[in-house]
TrEMBL record:
Membrane topology category: Multi-pass membrane protein
Record protein name field: HupC
Annotated transmembrane regions: 74-92, 140-164, 184-205
Keywords of the record: Cell membrane, Electron transport, Heme, Iron, Membrane, Metal-binding, Transmembrane, Transmembrane helix, Transport
Source organism phylogeny: Bacteria, Pseudomonadati, Pseudomonadota, Alphaproteobacteria, Sphingomonadales
Length: 225
């Protein structure tokens, strides 16, 4: 019996969820130190900011009080776990063909009629298509997250690191400057947060116990979401 989710996918799923939670909460504490976003290489005056972020309450942050130093320690530690686990997951998924088998979209899936059918299936909370593990919208959203948003978080985070910036100054310049990298970092974090909230809501609406059992124990390949 083939499992719906491999061990590598399940391990990374939960480890990534923990990392994103800690990175978000520590990042909110860091944001409280200077809650304004800019474009380019420099920026400090609120009048020059393109966005002003709210001051996040302490119950949403790590630690549960304002401490820039401690928040940065948590952020850097889990950023390493986040980056290395993503790399390990990608290598494992190439080896076991998870990407090629489950996430690559086919030309027929890009037809308007097929996309509309997938949207209708999502509205009915039916996510598996024709016996496949994922339908087009799932493949597309997971692909954007895994191959664009998560790597972008790592690259922009490296551009914000003083050590990485000293060694690879070209990275920050490629992203439009240090302040642009910081803005992209926050925008990407907001996109990942939105995806996570939507993901959790869909799991809750489509039968959470079966979904959780599959992501913990593997499930069966013929189980429908």
């Amino acid at each position: 019996m083939k499992q719906r989710h491999t061990f590598a996918t399940r391990l990374w799923h939960w480890l990534n969820a923990l990392c994103l939670l800690v990175l978000l909460m520590s990042g909110l504490n860091i944001s409280n130190a200077h809650p304004w976003l800019y474009w380019g290489d420099s920026g400090f005056q609120p009048a020059h900011a393109w966005a002003a972020l709210p001051r996040f309450p302490h119950w949403m942050t790590i630690p549960d009080r304002y401490s820039l130093a401690i928040a940065r320690d948590w952020h850097v530690l889990f950023a390493w776990v986040f980056a290395l686990s993503l790399l390990a997951y990608m290598l494992a998924s190439l080896r076991n063909r998870h990407f090629a088998r489950d996430l690559v979209t086919r030309r027929r899936e890009w037809r308007v009629g097929a996309i509309l059918a997938d949207i209708a299936a999502h509205l009915r909370l039916r996510f598996a298509a024709h016996g496949a593990k994922y339908n087009f919208l799932q493949k597309l959203s997971y692909g954007v997250v895994i191959f664009i948003l998560l790597p972008l978080m790592i690259l922009t985070g490296m551009a914000l690191s003083p050590g990485a910036d000293a060694a690879w100054g070209w990275l920050g310049q490629a992203l439009g400057g240090r302040q642009s990298a910081r803005s992209i970092h926050f925008i990407t974090a907001a996109a990942l947060t939105g995806f996570t909230i939507g993901h959790v809501l869909l799991v809750l609406l489509s039968g959470p116990w079966g979904q959780l059992r599959a992501m913990i124990g593997g499930g069966r390949i013929d189980e429908q979401a």
